[in-house]
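Hi R.,

Here's the chain you asked about this morning:
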Amino acid sequence: MWTKSHSIVTTEATKEQMWKLFADVNNWHTWDSGIEFATMEGKFEKGNHFILKPKGGPKVKIALVETIENKKFVDCTTFPLAKMYGEHTFEETKEGLRITTTMKVEGALGFLWRKLVAQGIADGLAKEMPEQVKAASKL
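And here is the predicted structure, written out as tokens:
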């Protein structure tokens, strides 16, 4: 199994604003320059799923495997012989809101999907997470 995390602390956005940003899957393309679109029918809750189309990549179905409003959500993308999880947490601290994203890949072909997909996502977190905060602060 492979895991990589990145955290930032901010006073620019609240956990409620961050949750609202992510829960509005159909508008992810307005703040995430790496995707063409994301679509979801129904609520942002465990058991639901959405379709995401990264720029230059195929559409993927992503399941919500855990959701705790304003605190945490975990999504799961299933690849041949591997699964990739994205865990997103929002924790209030004395310094501000700590936002952590952890990417995890497991399975027999996990090494391949880490190289093809997950490593690029993880490497982009330092740049993308402040952009997420900026977008959320306007909600």
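One quick note: The chain has one domain: 2-136.

Cheers,
M.
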